[in-house]
Design brief:
With about 290 residues, the protein is an alpha+beta fold. The chain is built from six helices and 15 strands. The radius of gyration is 19 Å and the shape is flat.
Length: about 290
């Protein structure tokens, strides 16, 4: 990765991944490599999935009437009436949507061992193709990092051990080339959630003005998990163009007389019409670099 990129916040994920790899199952599930999680600003409870004012958004998502029972949608490519058939097609469609459109997304990973939280990482990423602005927000238990890009300059704010530093430097990369979120198909991102196991037949649901197909986990794939899965849930929301708007999973695993829980989520909060506001600390970062 070139130096003038999202390298610093991503490096923080790589450092934290060492904590996760202390548990064997995290490595085998594929969530230990925390680098390049992508995310957005906003509340975790927000479920905005597209443009509510049109009959069809730019991705082909069908608008819904919240007061009516939705007509069943035809399963898009990568899915069928029996469940999810091809996880790669869903990842590719989601990646294409995020590449071609401005977006606000969020990803979160939480690990606990015997009820004690051992890892909590959240990353929110807002990126606008028209204004060439991006805000990356990384939060973990021991540190927080912010990276803001505007007019060919990137501003960085990092807090660790109660010490905060700010800086700015030139951003010489092609903004459009760095716009898509990385590692989307990896175990630490959307791909890992989709590969949790087999999903049951979908149900058509209305969420935030869109009709989406909702897939619920039917059975977990334990072939690459060290330990015994004692509880498992996963839910996937897919639009008519195979774009995943929200994916969540929770696994409870018993191993070596310990109970380890993994909670993971991927959410597209906004797609298309996204505003990236200049953070207050960017001015300080610019002054300190003079």
């Amino acid at each position: 990765m070139p130096q003038d990129s999202d390298e610093q916040p991503r490096a923080q994920f790589e450092n934290l991944s060492g904590v996760a790899t202390r548990r064997t199952f995290l490595t085998t599930v594929g969530v230990a490599a925390l680098s390049a999680l992508a995310g957005c600003q906003g509340s975790k409870d927000t479920e905005e999935t597209g443009n509510e004012d049109t009959d069809e958004n730019e991705l082909g998502g069908v608008a819904s009437d919240e007061n009516d029972t939705p007509e069943p949608l035809d399963p898009p490519e990568g899915t069928s009436e029996d469940g999810i058939e091809d996880t790669e097609k869903l990842v590719d469609a989601t990646r294409t949507a995020l590449t071609k459109n401005s977006y606000a997304i969020e990803q979160e990973l939480v690990n606990t061992t015997d009820g004690e939280q051992t890892l909590h990482v959240t990353q929110r990423r807002t990126s606008n193709l028209d204004s060439n602005k991006r805000l990356l927000v990384f939060d973990a238990a021991t540190e927080t990092n912010r990276l803001y890009i505007e007019n060919g300059t990137q501003f960085i704010r990092s807090t660790s051990d109660d010490e905060t530093t700010t800086q700015s430097r030139s951003f010489q990369e092609d903004f459009r080339a760095t716009h898509p979120p990385e590692m989307l198909g990896g175990g630490e991102s959307l791909g890992g959630i989709l590969r949790t196991g087999a999903f049951a037949s979908p149900e058509t649901v209305s969420k935030s003005g869109l009709l989406l197909l909702q897939f619920e986990l039917d059975s977990v794939d334990e072939s690459e998990i060290s330990g015994t899965v004692t509880e498992e849930t996963a839910t996937i929301f897919v639009d008519t163009n195979s774009v995943v708007h929200k994916a969540t999973r929770s696994l409870e695993i018993e191993e070596d007389a310990q109970t380890v829980t993994l909670d993971q989520s991927f959410v597209i909060h906004q797609l298309g019409d996204v505003s990236v506001e200049r953070p207050d600390w960017a001015d300080k970062a610019a002054k300190e670099n003079r």
